[in-house]
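User: These chains co-purify. Model them together.
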Amino acid sequence: MTLSRAMIPGVCALAILAAPFAGLLPDYWVTLFNYIGISSLVAIGLVLLTGVGGMTSFGQAAFVGFGAYTSAVLTLQFGISPWLTLPASLVVTMLVAGLIGAITVRLSGHYLPLGTIAWGIAFFYLFGNLNWLGAHDGLAGIPPLRVGSYALTDPRDYFVVVWIAVVSAVIATQNLLGGRVGRAIRALRRSTRAGEAFGVNTAAAKLMVFVYAAMLAGLAGWLYAHFQRSVSPGPFGIGTGTEYLLMAVLGGAGRVYGAILGAAGITFLRDELQNFLPWLIGNTGNYEAIAFGAVLVLILQTASTGLWPILFGPPPAPAPPKPRDDKKPPGRALPAPGTSLLSVQRARKTFGGLVAVNDVDFEVQSGRIIGLIGPNGAGKSTTFNLITGVLPLSSGQIRFEGHALRAQTPQRAAALGLGRTFQHVEIVADMSVIENVALGAHLLGRAGALRAIFNLDRSEEALLFANAERQLARVGLADVALKPAGTLALGQLRLVEVARALCLNPVLLLLDEPAAGLRVGEKKALARLLREVRGEGIGVLLVEHDMDFVMSLADALVVLDFGTKIAEGVPAAIRRDPVVLEAYLGGVS
Amino acid sequence: MDSTIFLFLLQDGIINGAVYALVAIATVLVFAVTRVILVPQGEFVAFTALTIAALENGKMPSTPWLLLALGVLAASSEIIRHFRELNLRRVARIVLFDLALPVGLLMLTRTLAPLKLGQVTNILLAIALITPMGPMMYRIAFEPIAHSSVLVLLMAAFGVHFSLIGLGLLFFGPEGTGTAPLSQASFSLGDLVISGQSVAVLIVTAVLLVLFALFFGRTLLGKALRACSSNRIGARLVGIPTSAAGQIAFALAAFLGAISGVLVGPLMTVFYDSGFLIGLKAFVAAILGGLVSYPMTVLAALGVGFAEALFSFWASNFKEVLVFTLIIPVLAWRSVYAPHAEETE
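Assistant: Joint model of the two components:
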């Protein structure tokens, strides 16, 4: 049997996990492996936070500190068993992270990393100045973990504890990422707009990831405290925080196993520099800091995608769960064909002095396709964004199934059953096609992070994926379901977006130029699909430039020009309308 | 707290704040032009103060050696990266700027150091030694990854910081020193004793800020730098070389750092790693100023300085904790009023 490339990491991992017990490794190396494991936990959290969620934190070391100090104080001051302090450590880090996260995760761009640097330093000085935490000397004499009366002081014993924690963290994290909440998290970095259009609460998802990463750091802190048996502020400062981040980046931000590889790489590197450099150059100065910084810069210059993707290639697509029976996800009762769904009444949007949408009225009924057309800059996309809640109305109102849409947000639009596509494709490129489509079913599921972590969401996931598979088959892309979405052509991505919108079980489908970039055959297939959708009683609002496509499909057309509605009616009448002809062709004399 | 103490703290805060303002301006400038958050900015400050201290004692400072080391690194990294595009002009520039200049400064320092020519010479020499380190640092560490994300650049900045701290210990040793005050004069204003040093700090800072405003508002180079910061691609399209802009920004940052070092030396005992905290506090000011607005940054820096003085009076142990937590309410405010923006990387 040949060893496939994908199996190498697994074999190596087994060998490493078995090595300490085969008597092959001296204590020194076992201890080093324990520190690697502890750092891995923090790095795994960072992979989720930075590589997947797109939030950078330099402050994870502070959370390690919270975990470590909580357990140190509780065991030393109150004599509580270390096993009981584990939940306490986790709860304290959770609370602290929740508080900080609530303030900082909504910050955009580079403010978040800057914020983490600031509170990372603040906590470092706080640990160093509180007398009941032992100030700068820290706390010593922390009791070891015990099983019965047997103390786990031998590094080989502790190796088991540490790596059970690491393996559990890996499994929990993979489960989390594979589930419904995981898809929402993975959409955070690449396409917040897509996530929100299908009901993802971005701020909540970010906070959840932040707290999860912090709790992994808290767990690492607890392990650290009872392995080292003493805590002091030193290892919880911004320098260590940077090192953790470097581990995640070195391993390949975004890859869970990469975190372990990165942790191992950095820990070995620092250790070897400390051992090797004094021997090479003599014993003055701290050359390892110089070399460490230099290596860091070199890594970033030569391998900023990280080691894991270079060594082991892209991740395999996860196999979607198969449904055990033919249960369907809860459908939506669609109103009778011809019922008014969407009613836009004197909708107006101004940007400063520019009136982008000027008191526009129109209606969309269930079981009908309404085309919204107009020359470039007519205000079609702005109207679209008003309906979907991406932009607020300046005046007028939009009613959906009789209710006025006030304070509309993309999430509320999704909850009401408005499924949409985007003019500029919004796809999570590093997720598989079917996962992208399943993102559309976000609101059909209920499983939260905890159910995902403990793998209790499988039957629900199976339903969601069955739905996604069905919709993907309808747009004719069933055979590329497992490909990374980023590898598809533009036309195919538009169809993926249509499938994703259908996955919401929409009442009203809002399509923004779905035919742009499609080949003739694909256009015909899309038209056939939209007629089928109309037949089911779903209303469709179609913004489109391709006149043949929209004329052959729409039951009625609304024509905009410079933000104003200039005509409305059946396609045949619009074709002959002199006002429309003038708008498109610049005047017919 | 009576008014005398308050005024004393105010004076103390304003002086510290003025120094932070210079460093913060440099941070903002470098970030705007290159997107690098210059963590090692503080090292320029500390190394300058240490250089002046050595010169005052008539000793040969290690700074020229550090400069030469950086020059050799910059030269070799450029030659390796651009091996195929080497022409006479490029080689001449590398030899002149990376090798001849440090060697020249090394010999000059050797000659001047034992003579103890006095404060002005010391300061000028130190500034001349530190300023070229900026562009060298840019070319070694940041230019090859100039198009990476802010995160990658920030991590590289930390790498440079780690290395410089190590080099600082190697070249300057673990002892801390202070430098002679710029002015021995002091006069009293009511109950308050005002030292000549604080007046000097304020005058130097004010003059530099005005010069900066003129530079960015009136000169072509300044306008080109502003163009780079507001739209990098646009600036390239109209023919502004972004690499040169990066080097100029780093040179200005090193220069401002050196001036801050001159001002800070007499105020505190400077160690090889003192720069980090100074840099970070300036950095708090830069964030408070939103990383874009220079006047806001100056105000914020004065605020940080004053807050620090107050905190050290009330709770000196928690001074650093409080200074760095200052940032949290500001960030919270920003998160409410500017909540939603997609990551642009």
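Chain B touches chain A through 49 residues (CB under 8 Å).
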